Amino acid sequence: MTKYYQTFSSPIGRVHIIADNTSLRSITFDCNWQAVNKTAGDIKPEHNGITEQTLSQLQEYFAGKRTAFDLPIGFRGTEFQQQAWQALLSIPYGETRSYSEQARLIGNPKAVRAVGRANGMNPIAIVVPCHRVIGKSGKLTGYAGGLDIKFFLLDLESQVNPRPQAALLQQQDQPVSNQHRDD
Predict the structure, then answer these.
(1) What is the fold of 79-171?
(2) Which residue in the list 118, 130, 149, 153 is annotated as catalytic?
């Protein structure tokens, strides 16, 4: 199946989009692009309707004009990963959930660390909002794009939708290591 590729500059750096003829397959950041590119297979450096639609919606998101995405998503992963990623789609814009809450949501409350690993493998950043998952203590933990990007995305959403998220961001002292996960 042919995959199409598009990239653009965003407030968090270059964002890379991959789609096939039926769905969005990947949104990743520069720091992860080499690894994704190696496993993505044959990619045409051409746009298609889905990459264009994704680009447009991401630009609206970064401008604070979009709080929900309407894109055809194509997950490829284990059944557990797909459950974890589907659960991410239920977290409203401007809100957060803990890894524990996400594990309970998929009916597997003891799978907290497995949920964290699945989130780290999420191929569709931002649109499938793993950045909205935080430690149960309220600390920012683990994000494949780095905690700086996670903080930026949460801050962006808190400005458009100032819910309890704003309090979380104000109390954040120092970022926690990417390797540490506070369940």
Answers:
(1) Arc Repressor Mutant, subunit A (1.10.10)
(2) 130
